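WARN  no MSA supplied for this record, continuing single-sequence
INFO  ligand: guanosine-5'-triphosphate
INFO  echoing inputs
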Amino acid sequence: MLEIAPHGNPLVVQLILEDLLNRGCRLAEPGEFTRTAFLNGRLDLTQAEAVADLIHARSERSLELARRQMHGSVGRKMSDLTDQLLQIMAHLEAYIDFPEEDLPSEDQVGPAQDLQALIVELQALMETQHYAALLHEGVKTLIVGEPNVGKSSLINTLLGTDRAIVSDRPGTTRDYLSAFIMLGSWRIEILDTAGFHDEAKDLESIGIELTMEQSETADCFLLVLDSSQNAPTLPQALLDKMTPENTLVLENKIDLKSHTDCSEYLPEIQHCAVSVKHETGMAKFKAAWLKLLEARIAPLSQVDGLVLNARHASALSEATQALQAAHDKMSANELSELIAADLRQGIEAIGNVVGRVDNERMLDRLFREFCIGK
Ligand SMILES: Nc1nc2c(ncn2[C@@H]2O[C@H](COP(=O)(O)OP(=O)(O)OP(=O)(O)O)[C@@H](O)[C@H]2O)c(=O)[nH]1
Ligand SMILES: [Mg+2]
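INFO  complex generated
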């Protein structure tokens, strides 16, 4: 291996590259080194994926997660799950392979319970994939409310620039506008939307439709009110999506003399009093928002600090189905051979997460657990 460290002048780099290419070198393919490391068994598939995550990480949290996965956190967990399954399997196999031996009478209750516990663990692990989407793509937060309440003013204040047009004419925002901000160590995708009102026509009603569409996939809502006006009338379909866990109500324009207390409106949802224009109450609002996010997201991230991606989760879902089938067969006292076949399928599916299936290990376990040399 030869390492060339020139200074950073792009022209010099270009000339060196051209020279090397003329001498018969070629440029590496994207991901080629990681791929080679995987093929040579230096990295498992989850570690190779983590290299890509590391490159694309846009928040401290996803960076930290990628770093841990690169050091094998997911691989170790899969190996641990496989070990547990092998133990159950070894138990079964002993009765299949040596039926005439003097083994104690077959106990199905213990293995069935172990298997059930494993299924629960797999399900919790699969849940963490939602957390991965939040981490990598950002927590999708929709700013909604009636026209002229200050939604566009809010996104501008959060971004620190005048991205969205603000005017005192209701119905200014027609199309939604999306941008990214960091809140604490969270990446947030924030969307300014068209204001809701009953008599919307043409372009405005198209804007409202778009907001409804976006609300289908939103993780969080910031519902903005003009505290100097009457309580809003928002579509029930939108209100149905808002819960105390995913929504904050912002009582805006508290700088106006005519502002009133809006705590009666959606009383179960937390309210923050702000003046977006004068940046009053913003620190308190951001703290409440951060708390809401962490409360919402924390339960998703509590399986040994691991977060699986969609590919891992789909492999584990396949494993869960196989294990569930094995469990059902155990409960029905079916043949050990049939149960073992399901378990093997489960092990294989878990093995697909790290990209290698290792049957040798099953044999090792089998011979270690049972003294068959007697
Ligand atoms: N007094 C006062 N006025 C505000 C405040 N926040 C926003 N405004 C004003 O309210 C008007 C509407 O603000 P926008 O941010 O355009 O409101 P919007 O909700 O995006 O309105 P649409 O796009 O029409 O749905 C503007 O004139 C803002 O300057 C505030 O805290 N206090
Ligand atoms: Mg607007």
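The chain has 13 helices and six strands.
INFO  checksum written, moving to next record
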